[in-house]
């Protein structure tokens, strides 16, 4: 993807540093695909690539106050991805050794490093639980919009309700999900909203 003439990355990074979710979304969509392909070449694993992209952007949001001082964001981003990949490979190697040691000793006290990491799979599970906590009508309308790709007007026609009702219901459903995710993930919540489309 080429940058448009109106794309001012320095300004966008400044906005992210100030806490702008919209600016974070722009950077994510600008770089996520490139980063995913880059990690895929290193790891040869789509699952690993997804997890690393997830981790990198969560950390970018967590440390967003530093972004305004970065001159070459793409270099910074890909360096962060390389380091994240290296840590991932190290962690998996350690986990393999730990499992082997547990099998030898039957110890229950050894704890895998990285246990507290927020993984993409954990977040997806939390999102599915948040969806299940919606009202039946909220869940139906949200899934018709997000999974089936129907427009608000198409959903309104299908269910015999007004377009405004559809819009309001989706807004209420997303707000409910955002509240659930915020309770679970606190400072990471906004990044998760963007990474997983809860917008």
From TrEMBL:
The keyword Cytoplasm does not apply. InterPro entries: RNA_pol_sigma-70-like, RNA_pol_sigma-70_dom, RNA_pol_sigma70_bacteroid, RNA_pol_sigma70_r2, RNA_pol_sigma70_r4_t2, RNA_pol_sigma_r2, RNA_pol_sigma_r3/r4-like, WH-like_DNA-bd_sf. SUPFAM superfamilies: Sigma2 domain of RNA polymerase sigma factors, Sigma3 and sigma4 domains of RNA polymerase sigma factors. Keywords: Sigma factor, Transcription, Transcription regulation. One of its GO terms (molecular function) is sigma factor activity. One of its GO terms (biological process) is DNA-templated transcription initiation. It comes from the Bacteria. Pfam families: Sigma70_r2 (PF04542), Sigma70_r4_2 (PF08281). Residues 28-94 form the RNA polymerase sigma-70 region domain. This is RNA polymerase sigma-70 factor (ECF subfamily).
